[in-house]
Target: L-type lectin-like domain-containing protein
Amino acid sequence: MSSIKLNLVLCSVILSILVCVNTQTVHRRFEYKYSFKPPYLAQKDGSVPFWEYGGNAIASGESVRLAPSLRSQKGAIWSKQGINFDWWEVDIMFKVTGRGRIGADGLAFWYTSQRGDYTGEVFGSSDRWNGLAVIFDSFDNDNKHNNPYIMAVINDGTKVFDHKSDGSQQLLSGCLRDFRNKPFPTRARIEYYLNTLTVYFHNGMTNNEADYELCFRAENVILPRGGVLGLSAATGGLADDHDVIHLLTTSLHSQQQQQPGGQQMSVDEQQKLSQEYQEYQKKLEQQKEDYRKEHPDEVRDKDGEFDDWFESDGQRELRQIFQGQTQIHDVLRDLNKKVDEVIGKQMNALSMLTAVYSQAQGQPIQPGAVPAQMPSLPIGRHDWDALVANNQIMINTIAELKGFIIEVSRKTDASAGGGGPSQQFVAEVRDSLQQVKATVTGVAQRLAAGSPQVVNAPISSCPDASCVSVTGVLIVAAVQLALMLVYAMYKERKEAQAKKFF
Ligand SMILES: [Ca+2]
Ligand SMILES: [Ca+2]
Model:
């Protein structure tokens, strides 16, 4: 038992030491002499600073086309100098594009003791290389349906690459990834640190910097020191365009490699360099601005030219689809935000209502305290519905009343304008009076039937409703009419005032 415990303790100590070693800060430094990137990747004479290219490779301001989409093309680009650091990370942004469903042959990144060929046998570079090749093999030579494939092949200068089997017997490690015809440039990050080789791949489905995924990791990899960096590509019977947009090299330094005082030095250096960089940046912007002012037409033409020449129908369609998707995504995000806002407001309203209700109940809620039971709201859904229905009935009644008043006033005007009551008006008034009389009779009868005491009241001396004199009814009707007219005038004035505000 005790030996097991001892072993466990030993293991944990070793593990913690390993973790300590691995979590040591890695100092990174961008190595501009082993990098190239747009804009102004190539200078006016076509040369790429610190690099040399050849074969069918062409460099422009925006990219290096290692091999164009023509049959049997080969090209390569190599760093002029060998590196002066042990550990490094290289980030390559590239595009392999072609009209065919299948393309060929592929592209390779090289870290070798010496510069290779520009028109060699292995994806444009020399065979029997000494060092590392990370190959992006498009074409499936062995017909095993396992291409495009990304693989690392290490050679000591003696082996010949076996194209027939796509190097399947020689590779150190690899992963099956499609890197052809992607909407955004594909990327590979190759890291060689403390004899561990790690390759990450970005599949180009997004332009998000963080979308790298691990392709493979291999340990105990030993590469020659002070090697050169290179890229090459080749086409065969089938042909893709092989474009490299950037190659960025970063040297990696572990803590032990830092010399005493080196940190301070690098901080000073950093400050100085960043100052210089800012100055150059300002100068560059100024020059660009001047150029634009001097040649406004030329700049516009150039921008348009590239768009017109380098976009096929398929690419345009794809771009449109992606733009559409991006827009949908934006709309959805906005919608999501708004729904969140609405929910937040609703929650606020609910809490306010709850507070009001509890205050009405005489139980003030302590701030921050959660009520033990959510009280039901003072107004329920059915109450609300009933309220709305009542309101509607009231509105309808008022509208009817208004119509009636207008009709009455019209008739009154007509009768006043006519100089005397017409036969028709007199008949209508008589009818109305008959109706009023009938209603009064009905009400009296109902009252009589409902309450027997009323029958015994003095009204009983007049058992028939017709005993109400015509003069009395006329007076009542006249008073009613006058009241209605006054109300109609008052209402019209009110409406006129209200209209002024709108
Ligand atoms: Ca192949
Ligand atoms: Ca294959």
